[in-house]
Write a structure and sequence with these properties.
Length: 535
C-alpha cells in the first residue's frame, strides 16, 4: 500500500506539471521573450541571473527545510488518508498555484516582495500590515531554526564540521562557475564528490563547541550570508544542497520499491483527536507539504531576483512545490508504516525528524545501505536544509525591512533602508527572541504561516484581475485558506484564553484582525468591476 501511495503521488504530480502548470502559464501570460529583473536590475549582489538548475536548487532547498517532514508526521494522528489527499490535492491546486503566482507577480513588480505587490494593487495600508506581519514571522523563523541548527551541532558535532566545510566548498564552487567559467556539469560532478568528502571529514573531525558559542557563530554566519552577493554563497550552496535532498528522495523511493512496507496506521482515526479537530487543524499542521506562506516569501524575496527567464518560472515556482509534495508523502509513509506504539516511541525519542530518519534509513537498508549510515545521512540532510531556510529567511527579512521604510523618492538615504542596518536589526530580533524563548509563541506559527499563504494568493489574484487575466484558479484556494486560518486562530485564542496564556491570546487576536482587514480589502478590489487596470 505504501508503494502505491508514492507512485500515485508521483504520477499525479507529473501529469499536473505538464497539464495544469502549462495551463496556468498560458492563462497568466508568461512571456519567454520578456527580460526578468535579474537582467534589467542586475546589481551583482541580490539581482543576479541564475541557470535554471542552480535556481531550482536554491528555491527547493530554501522552501523544503524540515516543514514537509514535520507536518505530515504530526498530522498522521488523524489517519494517513486525509493527510495524503491534502498533500496531493493541495500541492497541485493550492500550493503550486500559490508558489507559481507569487514568483510571477514578483518578477512583474521588479522582483519586489508580496508587500510591494499589495501596495501597487490594494494600497499602502495593506502593504504596511503585510510587511510588519511577514517580518515578525521571519524573526520567529530565525529564532526557531537557529536553535534547531545549534542543538543539532551540539548533539551531533560531525554535522557542525560538515556544515562549515560545506560553506567553504560552496564559495569555491560559486567562484569556479561564475568567475573562472568552469562548465556547470563538470563543476557539479566535482562538487558532489567533495560534498561526500565533507561528510566523511565531519565524521573523522567533529567540532565540539558549547551551545552559546555555536549560537553566536550561526548568527554571525546568517548576517554575512544575507548581505553577501548571491553568487558567492547562496546560489552555489543551495544548488549543492539540493543534491543531498534529491539523493535522499531517490533513495527513499527506491527503498520503498524494494522494501514494500505495509501501512499500519488506520486510514482515518477520528475528527477530534485529543482536542484537535481535523478541520481546520490538519490544514495548518501540514503546511510546507501542501501550501506554505513561507514559500511566497522565498519566491518573491530571493528567487524572483535570480530568475533568468520567464520560461523557467513554471519549473521553479510550480515544479518545486510538486517535488516537495513527493517529500511530504514519503514523510507520511515513514509514520504510517509504523504501528501507533512504535510511532509514539520514536517521536518521544527525537521528534518527527527521528521518525523520518529512521524510516528512510530502514527503507534504504533494503538496497545495502547500513541503517546507521542511512539514518545519519538523512539527519544531516535535514540539518543542511534547516540552515538553508535560516539564511534565506534572514535575507528576505532584510528585504522586507528595507521595503517597509522605503519612500517614493529614489534618492532616499534613510539609515533604516541600509542593508547592513536592516540585516543587523533582523538578526538581532531573531537572536534575542531565540534567547528569550521562541517556544512560547511558536504555537501560533502554523496559523501565521497559512495566513501569509492566504494573503499571497489574494495579492496575486487582485493583480491578475487588474491585468484582465483569468483568476478562477484562485477563488477556491483563497477562500479555503482564509477560512482555515480564521477558524484555527479562533480555536487558538479560545484554548489559550482558557489556559490563561494571554500573550498567545493577544497575538492570535491580532492576526485574526489582520486577516479580516486584508480579506475585506481584497474583496473590495475583486468585486469592483469598474476598476481600471493597474501595475
Amino acid at each position: 500500500m505504501a508503494l502505491i501511495l508514492i507512485l500515485v503521488a508521483i504520477v499525479a504530480f507529473i501529469i499536473a506539471y505538464v497539464t495544469y502548470g502549462s495551463w496556468l502559464a498560458k492563462e497568466w501570460g508568461i512571456d519567454i521573450s520578456r527580460k526578468t529583473p535579474a537582467h534589467t536590475m542586475t546589481d551583482g549582489v541580490d539581482y543576479v541571473p541564475a541557470k535554471a538548475p542552480v535556481l531550482l536548487g536554491h528555491h527547493f532547498a530554501s522552501i523544503a527545510g524540515a516543514g514537509p517532514i514535520v507536518g505530515p508526521i504530526a498530522a498522521s494522528m488523524f489517519g494517513w488518508l486525509p493527510v495524503f489527499l491534502w498533500i496531493v490535492i493541495g500541492s497541485i491546486f493550492v500550493g503550486g498555484v500559490h508558489d507559481y503566482s507569487s514568483l510571477f507577480s514578483s518578477i512583474r513588480h521588479e522582483g519586489k516582495s508580496i508587500g510591494h505587490v499589495i501596495e501597487k494593487n490594494i494600497g499602502m495600508s495593506g502593504k504596511k500590515l503585510f510587511d510588519l506581519f511577514a517580518w515578525l514571522t521571519l524573526a520567529l523563523v530565525i529564532a526557531a531554526f537557529a536553535n534547531i541548527v545549534v542543538n543539532t551541532f551540539v548533539a551531533v558535532p560531525a554535522v557542525g564540521t560538515t556544515s562549515i566545510l560545506f560553506i567553504i566548498l560552496a564559495v569555491g564552487f560559486g567562484y569556479a562557475t561564475n568567475r573562472l567559467n568552469v562548465p556547470l556539469g563538470i563543476a557539479t560532478v566535482v562538487g558532489v564528490l567533495l560534498v561526500i568528502a565533507c561528510i566523511w571529514l565531519g565524521l573523522i573531525f567533529p567540532i565540539v563547541l558549547p551551545f552559546n558559542v555555536w549560537y553566536l557563530i550561526i548568527l554571525a554566519y546568517i548576517y554575512i550570508a544575507s548581505v553577501a552577493p548571491v553568487y558567492i554563497l547562496l546560489q552555489p550552496r543551495d544548488y549543492l544542497n539540493s543534491f543531498l535532498l534529491y539523493a535522499m528522495i531517490i533513495g527513499a523511493v527506491l527503498g520503498l520499491i524494494l522494501y514494500r512496507p505495509d501501512i499500519q496506521l488506520p486510514a482515518v482515526t477520528a475528527f477530534n483527536v485529543n482536542g484537535s479537530y481535523l478541520f481546520p487543524i490538519l490544514f495548518v499542521t501540514v503546511a510546507c507539504g501542501a501550501i506554505s506562506g513561507f514559500h511566497s516569501l522565498i519566491s518573491s524575496g530571493t528567487s524572483s531576483k535570480q530568475l533568468n527567464s520567464e520560461a523557467d518560472a513554471k519549473l521553479i515556482g510550480y515544479g518545486s512545490m510538486l517535488i516537495e509534495g513527493v517529500l511530504a508523502v514519503i514523510a507520511l509513509i515513514t509514520a504510517a508504516y509504523l504501528g501507533a506504539d512504535k510511532l509514539a516511541e520514536l517521536t518521544k525519542a527525537g521528534g518527527p525528524n527521528n521518525v523520518f530518519s529512521s524510516g528512510v534509513g530502514t527503507f534504504m537498508e533494503s538496497f545495502g545501505i547500513p541503517l546507521a549510515v542511512g539514518k545519519s545521512f538523512v539527519a544531516l540532510s535535514i540539518s543542511a536544509f534547516a540552515l538553508t531556510s535560516l539564511d534565506s529567511g534572514t535575507r528576505i527579512g532584510r528585504f522586507i525591512f528595507q521595503e517597509f521604510f522605503e519612500r517614493e523618492v529614489k534618492a532616499d538615504t534613510s539609515v533604516l533602508t541600509n542593508k547592513h542596518v536592516a540585516t543587523f536589526i533582523t538578526v538581532a530580533a531573531g537572536g534575542l527572541l531565540g534567547v528569550a524563548g521562541w517556544q512560547k509563541v511558536w504555537p501560533v506559527f502554523g496559523s501565521a504561516n497559512q495566513l501569509l499563504a492566504a494573503i499571497a494568493l489574494m495579492s496575486a489574484a487582485v493583480w491578475l484581475k487588474h491585468q484582465g487575466k483569468n483568476i478562477k484558479m484562485f477563488t477556491i484556494p483563497m477562500i479555503f485558506m482564509f477560512t482555515v486560518t480564521m477558524l484555527a486562530l479562533v480555536i487558538l485564542v479560545r484554548n489559550n484564553f482558557i489556559a490563561a496564556n494571554y500573550p498567545l491570546v493577544i497575538i492570535g487576536s491580532a492576526l485574526l484582525v489582520l486577516a479580516l482587514i486584508l480579506a475585506k480589502q481584497a474583496f473590495d478590489q475583486l468585486t469592483d468591476k469598474t476598476k481600471d487596470k493597474v501595475a
